[in-house]
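Input (structure):
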């Protein structure tokens, strides 16, 4: 590809020659001869410091935000945005030929995007998925490293999806990706706003900054689907100039309204009303928040041209999403739920929903991630204590922090409420404890890990799948009981 073609759509200055380019990259460790190196300033590094070395290593040119005094340099206002646009150009801008559906919010992105893909796929449509758990090209699974990939990986995925015949691509869009311009100038046909609650404040300076990052998705979206049960959703719906479709479990004036909600151990039942037509939904994920996710998925599919009858059929056929209100079979007289709730609002969603059908004690096993927002730790402790009968405070992903120090940050919130608790820093031991001490009718919520099959301890990643740990604990329980 010629360099000027790579720069298409970017305002730039410099005296670069229109040479043949082999690749584009922003990581100096991935340099190839003849590639363009884009200088990006990160939290812990600045690509501008490596620009001269990149040219010495064979880069054909460098793109930067300031004059570095280098031959053939190209200067742009925003190198992150330029990098994203260049990646799209390098792969032939496949996103422009795909019907893109995005979902953003603190909670619910994975469930909403998975539901949409399942409904569309059930109709024989070819759909790609980009998300937290994994990326998918129809039935092909590709490991995911971030909720929203790096711009180069993202456009490479778009190209693969187009090549294999995908018509739709459904993707989770993180606030980090939006803030870092990873999406470039990609246009979405439909995007969903699920909710906004305290999370990622180790990255965003405050909630307004977090909200502003999320809002950016809708600047590149034709139709917005907004959950107006959420206060930030209400704000967003009033701010957007384009088409806004509202969803609610509380406001009958919403475009999509859920009523007669019944929470069951195996899922939820409710009536969905759209344009004065009411349909019954029996959805295989427990929790009132699952109703909000199902409403959003229904709204997207209808806006994408699917009939209400087929949407209802598709939702009723869905069995749930891994790590989202997932029931782990025990064969016992108590229930174990695995959920990704790792924020105060995540716990506020999952615990009251489980309470509705808990006959015994509601037990919450949870921790907080290391190297992340410290201020939410006591809040999570308080929320868990307010909504559960017994707490097992343990580790999540401590990363480089001391697990016991993280727990000490959590406990003031727990003590504020006074709910009975135990502290077991080792998460495996904590799960064994929960299973061994479960009583008939108890519901144990394993919160925080969800779909993850690993744990990060002392900066190292180890295999850790809660489904396997629960099975091992149950086997030990059986052996101990003879």
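Output (sequence):
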């Amino acid at each position: 590809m010629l360099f000027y073609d790579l720069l298409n759509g970017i305002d730039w200055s410099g005296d670069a020659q229109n040479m043949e380019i082999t690749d584009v990259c922003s990581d100096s460790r991935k340099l190839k001869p003849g590639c363009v190196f884009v200088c990006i300033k990160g939290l812990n590094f600045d690509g501008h410091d490596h620009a001269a070395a990149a040219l010495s290593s064979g880069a054909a040119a460098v793109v930067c935000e300031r004059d570095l005094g280098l031959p053939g340099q190209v200067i742009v206002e925003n190198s992150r945005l330029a990098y994203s646009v260049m990646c799209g150009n390098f792969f032939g801008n496949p996103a422009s030929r795909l019907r893109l559906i995005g979902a953003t919010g603190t909670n619910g992105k994975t469930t909403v995007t998975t539901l949409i893909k399942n409904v569309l796929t059930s109709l024989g449509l070819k759909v790609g998925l980009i998300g937290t758990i994994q990326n998918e090209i129809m039935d092909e699974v590709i490991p995911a490293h971030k909720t929203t990939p790096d711009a180069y990986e993202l456009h490479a995925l778009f190209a693969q999806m187009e090549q294999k015949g995908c018509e739709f691509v459904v993707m989770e869009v993180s606030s980090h990706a939006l803030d870092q311009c990873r999406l470039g100038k990609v246009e979405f046909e439909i995007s969903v706003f699920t909710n906004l609650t305290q999370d990622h404040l180790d990255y965003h300076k405050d909630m307004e900054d977090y909200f502003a990052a999320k809002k950016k998705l809708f600047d590149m979206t034709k139709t917005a689907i907004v959950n107006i049960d959420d206060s930030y959703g209400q704000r967003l719906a009033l701010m957007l100039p384009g088409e806004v479709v509202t969803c609610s479990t509380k406001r009958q004036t919403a475009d999509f309204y859920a009523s007669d909600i019944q929470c069951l151990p195996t899922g939820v039942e409710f009536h969905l009303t759209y344009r004065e037509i009411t349909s019954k939904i029996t959805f295989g994920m427990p929790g009132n928040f699952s109703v909000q996710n199902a409403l959003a998925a229904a709204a997207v599919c209808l806006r994408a041209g699917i009939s209400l009858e087929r949407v209802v059929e598709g939702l009723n056929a869905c069995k749930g999403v891994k790590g989202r209100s997932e029931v782990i079979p025990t064969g016992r007289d108590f229930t174990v739920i695995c959920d990704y709730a790792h924020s105060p609002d995540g716990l506020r969603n999952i615990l009251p929903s489980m309470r509705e059908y808990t006959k015994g004690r509601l037990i919450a096993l949870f921790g907080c991630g290391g190297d992340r927002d410290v201020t939410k730790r006591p809040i999570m402790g308080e929320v868990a204590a307010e909504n559960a009968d017994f707490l097992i405070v343990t580790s999540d992903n401590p990363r480089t922090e001391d697990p016991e120090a993280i727990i000490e940050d959590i406990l003031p919130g727990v003590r504020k409420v006074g709910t009975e608790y135990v502290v077991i820093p080792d998460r495996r031991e904590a799960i064994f404890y929960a299973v061994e001490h479960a009583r008939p009718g108890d519901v144990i919520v394993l919160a925080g890990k969800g779909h993850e099959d690993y744990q990060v301890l002392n900066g190292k990643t180890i295999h850790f799948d809660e489904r396997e740990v629960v099975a091992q604990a149950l086997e030990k329980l059986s052996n101990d009981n003879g």
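Notes: The two ends are 70 Å apart (CA to CA). The chain has 15 helices and 24 strands.
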